[in-house]
Design a protein that fits this description.
The structure is a homodimer of 455-residue chains. With 455 residues, chain A is of the alpha+beta class. Chain A has 17 helices and 21 strands. Chain A has 3 domains: 86-204, Uridine Diphospho-n-acetylenolpyruvylglucosamine Reductase, domain 3 (2-Layer Sandwich); 208-322, Alpha-Beta Plaits (2-Layer Sandwich); 328-415, 2-Layer Sandwich (Alpha-Beta Plaits), CATH 3.30.70. Helix content of chain A is 36%, strand content 20%. The interface between A and B is large, with 96 and 96 residues. Chains A, B: Belongs to the FAD-binding oxidoreductase/transferase type 4 family.
């Protein structure tokens, strides 16, 4: 495994046992950094025999503590960072084969160099890894057009709990020879096996792209605009993000941005169309905006005329979490509901929060096209930050209770990890939980894979 | 369950114990036809207790014997046909909830009546059921744009072997709360549970559509055309089917069709673009064809100018299996290889077959956009039909051996069932088989679900 394969000095382990936000931390026996899939399998075989818990880790960017060991100091961290080869890019088959430790941005770039597009895109793309993206079934801003990480892999190489190596780096679009093990391991958060490599789908490079910020009266109008955009643009609809005025206010106040629209609106949608054709998206978006203005769905719209303007529109949306920080404590939720229910959910949530937390400021934003809202609530202005955050569980219960009422999910894209493991037991269909436990027991009978996570 | 719930008279069972082609048949204790999911679960609980094998059956159109009981007469057939309610169509969320026994064509129609599109489309759509489509992970002609049945469901209701009912009729596009049980049950051919209902994704209705038949020199040209079509049309590429001249000859000879192109070509591609926009696909396809003619990729092309002409082009492709019948015995294979490898695979297969079966006539056709070729071989003209068919195993071994060499699948879309169960043991990664068996054991420890199928 080479001299860099094992880190046992506590000082050198700090970057592995805590995560960048310091929201989760723990202790580890050591960090093992194998360089090949067979070595990963070998480490698992040893740990399985010895009954030592293994915490797989990629770029250490997960938000639910899935990649952090517990406080016992008896688990090891299995870092996949050294498995960083792009094994092959096959543009004619529209597939690339990459190892788990490849940084997402590097995978995107490798695709682009071959004249192809790998559409997974999220805030952490400069440091998160493909293995982590798959283990956590990452989402991001292009799910509406391309699906989540689970939809973007054709096959996997996986080291199993007992050290067997499952090799299914398939380049096939269709293969009906048995159970879909690929999608079972994807999103299992390292509890069923350790992904060491994957074959990923590639797409044609978008050659034209059009982006607009649309001012809207309310979430109902956002839903109407989304429905119209899907009907007119179909698969060319590459992103449909929403944010409320208060979110725009936060960004304008703290981040030296300027309002792209002449007057304020209560809600906004960021709409992007993309197409492999050389042109056409500008015209399509212009027509769509004209129709939505005529129908009274939209109040106003700003179409990006330059790359710089497009980046400016995206910044409004993407810097919202950062702009929320100077506003004091905030309590966050990563939830989804059926798309049709978003307006009702937002209205009921607002009323509920005002009743229990007078003055608290919800700034819900996110991937409306997928039904996924990041329901973040800033503290009342001037209130005590610690006192507000101390009521986090109460707030969580209000929001998650409402999510369940609408048949939604309490973790739309960030996963379960340590953060929501206890919550999962309360909200998930008991039969589904039993089936999940039966599968876990079948594939990891000694429970050495990422103990205490998810289940 | 009502007076029609059980059929025990052998005469009345004939339509259930044999399949329409009579390729597979068996005997059954009885046919049970529950009308509600809870009744399905109740039947399974009883059979699990008694150790009686259960063969789930939908429209009885499967091609690999998955829906037929064995010859023991000790299994029951569990028909899902009476679970035929469309529970809800929710166009704003782009989801419909349908029961397992709903005929595919009826589901398509329900979507269309709500102004939406359900893209699953295959030859048996007038009689196959959604439950069967999901259990078998059906493919069809629009996989290139919309994926297989596995990609088209958001959630399932499943009766488990011991009679528990798993309820996850989710309308969510994103839900990262645990293992992907939905996709595990889809494609498991009734061996892990019995699907009783599903939430299915809906899409915008295509409002413009353009179709062309393109004459090509060889499969390499077909691959170049496919690559160009993906680059220019992206997600608007709704179908890319190929067929060889001999297939066109068969259709022209036996089915009173006419050749849409002025002179014969060695290979053909049927290319269809579709878009929710009111227009644009005709122009896009015209440009694509012009570019492919200029580049020497295509030799000639006929663009359908009317609905009738479009239907005529599709008939050429869809009637090929029927037109092959008067040519004598044929041996069929449902295989896939990486898209890039299709030309090499076809060349090597042709040479191999001529060496071992001089005069035999391969007429490979199908879903080139998915890498899925129906590699069907007609007997040599005038040869003895029975003698040719008697060498089926030998032919299968040649073709499947070559498929494996190219990293392909011996069952791209038809599944495993009874037909390919023994084959699976030989070709599948042994670790993948072990994992599949462990999951089967965990979910159906007494082995009552579709015994003798798949595993």
């Amino acid at each position: 495994m080479g001299h860099n394969g094992v880190i046992a000095d506590p000082a050198d382990m700090i970057g592995y046992v805590t995560e960048p936000r310091d929201a989760f931390h723990g202790r580890a026996l050591c960090v093992v950094r194998p360089g090949r899939a067979e070595e990963v399998a070998g480490v698992l075989a040893l740990c399985n025999d010895a009954g030592v818990g293994v915490v797989p880790q990629g770029g250490n960017t997960g938000l639910v503590g899935g990649q952090t060991p517990d406080e016992s100091g008896e688990q090891i961290i299995l870092s996949l960072q050294r498995l960083d080869r792009i094994r092959e890019v096959d543009p004619a088959s529209d597939v690339m084969t990459v190892e788990a430790g490849v940084i997402l941005a590097r995978a995107q770039q490798a695709a682009e160099e071959a004249g192809r597009y790998f559409p997974l895109s999220l805030a952490a793309e400069g440091s998160c890894t493909i293995g982590g993206n798959l283990a956590a079934n990452a989402g991001g801003v292009h799910v509406i057009a391309y699906g989540t990480a689970r939809d973007l892999a054709l096959g996997l190489e996986v080291a199993l709990a007992d050290g067997r190596l499952l090799s299914n780096l398939s380049k096939l679009r269709k293969d009906n020879t048995g159970y879909d093990l690929t999608r079972l391991f994807i999103g299992s958060e390292g509890t069923l096996g350790v992904i060491t490599a994957a074959t990923l789908k590639l797409f044609p490079l978008p050659r034209s792209r059009a982006t607009a910020l649309v001012g809207l009266a309310d979430p109902q109008a956002a839903l109407a605009l989304l429905t119209l955009a899907k009907a007119r643009a179909g698969a060319a609809l590459a992103a449909f993000e929403v944010l409320p005025r208060i979110g725009v206010d936060f960004v304008l106040r703290h981040l030296a941005a300027r309002d792209p629209l002449a007057s304020p609106h209560r809600w906004y949608a960021l709409v992007e169309l993309a197409s492999p054709a050389e042109s056409g998206t500008d015209e399509l978006l212009t027509d769509l905006l004209a129709e939505s203005l005529e129908q009274g769905v939209a109040e106003d719209a700003a179409l990006a005329a330059t790359l710089e303007q497009r980046a400016g529109l995206w910044r409004l949306r993407e810097t919202l979490p950062e702009a929320q920080k100077p506003e004091g404590g905030s309590i966050k939720h990563d939830v989804s509901v059926p798309i049709e229910s978003i307006p009702a959910f937002l209205a009921e949530a607002e009323a509920l929060i005002q009743r229990h937390f007078p003055g608290a400021r919800p700034a819900p934003f996110g991937h409306m096209g997928d039904g996924n809202i990041h329901y973040n609530i800033s503290q009342p202005p001037g209130a005590d930050r610690a006192a507000f955050l101390a009521r986090r569980d109460e707030m969580n219960e209000l929001v998650h209770g409402l999510v369940r009422k609408f048949g939604g999910s309490v973790s739309a894209e960030h996963g379960v990890g340590r953060l929501k493991r206890d919550l999962l037991r309360k909200v998930k269909d008991p039969v589904a939980l039993e089936v999940m436990r039966a599968i876990k027991q079948a594939l990891d009978p000694k429970g050495v894979l990422n103990p205490g996570k998810l289940l």
